[in-house]
Write a structure and sequence with these properties.
The strands form four sheets. This protein has an eight-stranded mixed sheet, with helices on both faces. The chain is globular. It has about 475 residues and is α/β, with parallel strands linked by helices. The chain folds into three domains: about 55 residues, OB fold (Dihydrolipoamide Acetyltransferase, E2P); about 230 residues, Vaccinia Virus protein VP39 (Rossmann fold, 3-Layer(aba) Sandwich); about 150 residues, OB fold (Dihydrolipoamide Acetyltransferase, E2P) (Beta Barrel), CATH 2.40.50. Helix content is about 25%, strand content about 30%. Helix 1 packs parallel to helix 9 and helix 7 runs parallel beside helix 8. It binds S-adenosyl-L-homocysteine. S-adenosyl-L-homocysteine binds next to helix 5, strand 16 and helix 7.
Length: about 475
């Protein structure tokens, strides 16, 4: 039988890059055989060396760009080519936004098998600052409108959370992201997608490690102490928290660590030790010990105040979060007398946002600690028309419906795997007028929109919001109505 793999490992090939993959990698074909080339852009002609061959695809290493894309840019970060922290710095920002919208459209068409309204969806590379949105733009039969991705005016320095492994390379202390698909730490001094305070903490912790020769945790043997460093910065209140993740209780030269940090870090209000004794990829353990200052920090989104503990989930891009939540509120279009369900509510952020305009909001979430936080957040903001419940949304929501509660609007914001079919069916049974779907994965979103379509719910419009500039991730808010 003829061998259908047309490429040979370690050989160089000329490839036309036709599209970008989910992690920003270039995708091209050699005799109809797919080759992924990291660092290559759509529209480029490149020379690549084949480094790995699988049955249906191969990976190539970028050797030379023969014809560069007009959207190619010089990355601002000097370790960009080695670090795995972000993937799209070499692509013009507006082109990134366009790539993300196209990816959403592509998923809706190919996975969801739903029709896109091409006339009203955004024109290629034509990214206006702001789009006017009104309901009368839509003709239900023309298909789904996918808007331009809402980007950031300043797409760098946006993350409020820095979380980095600590290690040693040839007796030097290093702190940085892992290189892609490995556990090799790429030492960093500056990370442009994170708040500046992160750079400062990294520099100071390296000084401390070196001066006192602090033992570093070894993933292979389980010996050593320091595992990760985490920094959280509240953008609005400017409060800063530092979390030192260790494998054991006792920290040598703890006082020096506290002194160095408290003297040098602006806005520092909390230093916490997190103890993770397990040999896993999960960064944080369950035990937290406050070493200095408070145990939590406070930040605001819109008019609301949120308590953030080392372990709680909090959106990492506070500027875009406000845009995302306001879009969810706009799509819910509440009049004040509605019963709203917020499935997958986390610490209740969206629930509180919606409570301003609803009669009552029910929030459901699987992690008990998140619900504890949600209740505190509601109380702190003097909100009494929300009720939070711990449990699996797929089980709790049908139970609530069976007890006779009716929902006018349902919001879902599931993790990347999307919603279980049983939850979508339960939602449809509740017969809400509107559903708002907040998604961090366009693939599972498209699958779920198609299921909802079969259950009598029509998708009108999709608004991608760029929560993670310079990376391949895309977040969407979707307006869905009963047919
Ligand atoms: N809406 C929140 C959180 C979104 S993250 C915010 O914007 O901050 C998704 C949340 O879904 C997580 O908090 C996760 O713990 C929760 N979750 C995951 N599976 C769940 C399930 N089956 N039922 C309920 N909640 C679930």
């Amino acid at each position: 039988m003829k061998n259908s793999v047309p490429v040979v490992k370690n050989e160089n090939y000329i490839i036309d890059i036709q599209s970008l993959g989910y992690e920003g990698e270039g995708i091209g074909k050699i005799d109809n055989f797919t080759v992924f080339v990291k660092g290559a852009l759509e529209g480029e002609k490149v020379e690549a060396k084949i480094i790995k061959v699988n049955k249906n695809f191969a990976f190539g290493k970028l050797i030379n760009i023969i014809r560069p894309s007009k959207y190619r840019e010089e990355p601002v970060c000097k370790i960009y080519n080695r670090c795995g922290g972000c993937q799209l710095q070499h692509l013009n920002y507006k082109a990134q936004l366009n790539f993300k919208r196209k990816r959403v459209e592509d998923c809706i068409e190919r996975i969801g098998k739903l029709k896109i309204n091409k006339n009203k969806s955004a024109a290629e590379h034509d990214i206006p600052e702001k789009e006017e949105i009104s309901l009368d733009r839509y003709d239900y039969n023309d298909g789904i409108v996918v808007h331009n991705t809402i980007g950031m005016e300043k797409p760098y320095r946006y993350r409020n959370k820095v979380q980095l492994p600590v290690g040693t390379i040839r007796d030097e202390f290093v702190v940085g992201f892992y290189s892609p698909r490995s556990h090799d730490i790429i030492d960093m001094e500056e990370c442009y997608i994170q708040h500046e305070v992160g750079d400062k903490v990294v520099a100071i912790i390296k000084q401390w490690l070196k001066k006192y020769n602090i033992p570093i945790y070894d993933e292979k043997t389980g010996a050593g102490l320091v595992r990760h460093i985490m920094v959280r910065k509240a953008f609005k209140t400017e409060e800063t928290m530092i979390v030192l993740v260790t494998s054991k209780e006792n920290i040598p030269h703890e006082e020096e660590f506290i002194n160095l940090m408290s003297k040098n870090i602006d806005g520092l209000v909390s230093i916490v030790q997190n103890i993770n004794t397990k040999n896993t990829n999960v960064i944080l353990g369950l035990k937290c010990k406050t070493l200095w200052g408070k145990s939590d920090i406070v930040d605001n989104i819109g008019d609301f105040k949120f308590n953030i503990s080392p372990l709680s989930f909090f959106q990492v891009n506070p500027v875009q979060t406000e845009i995302l939540y306001n879009k969810a509120l706009e799509y819910a279009n509440l009049q004040g007398n509605e019963i709203v369900f917020d499935a997958y509510c986390g610490t209740g952020t969206i629930s509180l946002f919606l409570s301003q305009k609803a009669k009552k909001v029910y929030g459901v979430e699987i992690i008990p600690e998140a619900i504890e936080n949600a209740k505190i957040n509601a109380k702190q903001n003097d909100i009494d028309n929300v009720e939070f419940m711990v449990g699996d949304a797929e089980k709790v929501i049908p139970e609530i419906i069976n007890s006779g509660v009716k929902a006018d609007v349902v919001i879902v914001d599931p993790p990347r795997k999307g919603c279980e079919k049983s939850l979508l069916e339960a939602m449809a049974k509740m017969n809400p007028e509107k559903i708002v779907y907040v998604s961090c994965d366009p693939g599972t979103l498209a699958r779920d929109l198609s299921i909802l379509d079969n259950l009598g719910y029509k998708t009108l419009e999709v608004q991608p919001v760029d929560m993670f500039p310079m990376t391949g991730h895309v977040e969407c808010v979707v307006r869905i109505v009963k047919k």
